[in-house]
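ok trying this again, last paste got cut off
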Amino acid sequence: MKSERDLPRPKAPVSAYVLMLVTGLTLAAAVGLVAATVREGGDDRLLAFAVFAGTTAGPWLSVTWFVFVARHTVRPDPHRADNAESRWMTEATSSTFHDLVIACGVTLFLVSISGIEIGATAILVGILLVAAIDTAVRYRLLKRRAA
């Protein structure tokens, strides 16, 4: 009897790859165009377009790969719910959500009473960093406890 690993990997049609490339590069170009349009200093518009389109091309191509290609090439694990790693990640991310709500509330309180002005970019970067670090630490702890 053959296992899942012995089966040949399914292939996506060429049209899925073409659609992925066209959509991903179009979205990256749209980001570059928006950045070049709203950016102050008209001399650097082409440079702003190139930088923003170039830096967002990878993430956009990754997203469009998931949308157009992955459904043809990736076989979902039929026993995903039974995996320890899946349970650890679910527990880690749900606990991280609670930590973020508490951290945002405490930070909002401290910023409100102190009168400190913090930009939205700094706040969003902080939230992302706290979420990533918190999830990674919680996942490692759950993994270590299970070992």
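PB: full thing came through this time. Residues 80-146 form one domain.
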